[in-house]
């Protein structure tokens, strides 16, 4: 230890007079350092062998990780495909439900318009039985309002499913199924018709 301290002190004095680089100073210290343990070898940039091949114990890291990565990647793809298919199935089912509800609403509105036209066309019928038409008209309006609320709820659910699919990166199919729903949304409701008559 004393010898090392002396060498360091001498090197520091020499560095002050000649100002060699820090790397030269470190090499000089290592060269002058006495070997204490010859059984163990210490490798650094100066004595690292460049011609001998390096031996690696165990499997190569890339080969060991590839099998697991491929298996996990295929599992992830399968899970993603399954989730995507389920989500698409939910969207298709919701579209069919919305189409069915829109068709029912369309039929209900047509029937109401036919009955109203028939009632108002016949003056004798209006005089003979005004109470029955009032009850029928209230029932039609109630049914139509109920179906319109159900359609709005179904549209909201469909929008939520489509937003979920968009976030998952699922490309939407061409939408040809909601034409009836859009038509029904633009139709006059019985309330609108009554206000137009008045």
How would you concisely characterize the structure shown here?
By secondary structure, the chain is mainly alpha-helical. The protein is built from 7 helices and no strands.
Q: Can you give a write-up of this model?
A:
The chain has 198 residues and is mainly α. It folds into 2 domains: 2-32; 82-191. It is built from 7 helices and no strands. The protein has helices at 2-18, 22-32, 61-121, 123-128, 130-167, 179-186, 190-197. The longest helix is centred in the middle third of the chain and has 61 residues, at 61-121. The protein is rod-shaped and about 130 Å long. Mean pLDDT is 74; it is low at 176-186.
Multimerization status: single chain
Span between termini: 113 Å
Q: What's the helix-strand series?
A: HHHHHHH
Largest sheet report: none
What would the keywords be for this entry?
198 residues; mainly alpha; 2 domains; 75% helix
Layout: helices, strands, pairs:
Elements: H1 2-18, H2 22-32, H3 61-121, H4 123-128, H5 130-167, H6 179-186, H7 190-197
Helix pairs in contact: 1-2, 3-5, 3-6
């Amino acid at each position: 230890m004393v010898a090392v301290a002396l060498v360091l002190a001498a090197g520091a004095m020499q560095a002050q007079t000649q100002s060699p680089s820090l790397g030269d100073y470190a090499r000089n210290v290592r060269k002058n350092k006495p070997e204490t343990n010859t059984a163990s070898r210490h490798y650094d940039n100066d004595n690292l062998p460049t011609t001998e091949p390096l031996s690696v114990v165990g499997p190569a890291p890339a080969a060991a990780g590839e099998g697991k990565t491929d298996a996990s990647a295929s599992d992830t793809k399968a899970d993603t495909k399954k989730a995507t298919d389920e989500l698409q199935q939910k969207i298709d089912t919701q579209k069919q439900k919305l189409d069915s509800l829109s068709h029912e609403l369309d039929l209900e509105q047509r029937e109401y318009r036919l009955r109203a036209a028939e009632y108002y066309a016949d003056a004798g019928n209006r005089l003979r039985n005004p109470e029955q038409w009032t009850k029928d008209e209230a029932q039609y309006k109630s049914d139509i309002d109920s179906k319109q609320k159900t359609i709005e709820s179904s549209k909201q659910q469909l929008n939520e499913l489509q937003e979920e699919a968009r976030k998952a990166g699922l490309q939407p199919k061409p939408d040809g199924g909601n034409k009836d729903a859009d038509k029904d949304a633009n139709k006059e409701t019985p309330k609108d018709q009554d206000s137009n008559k008045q």
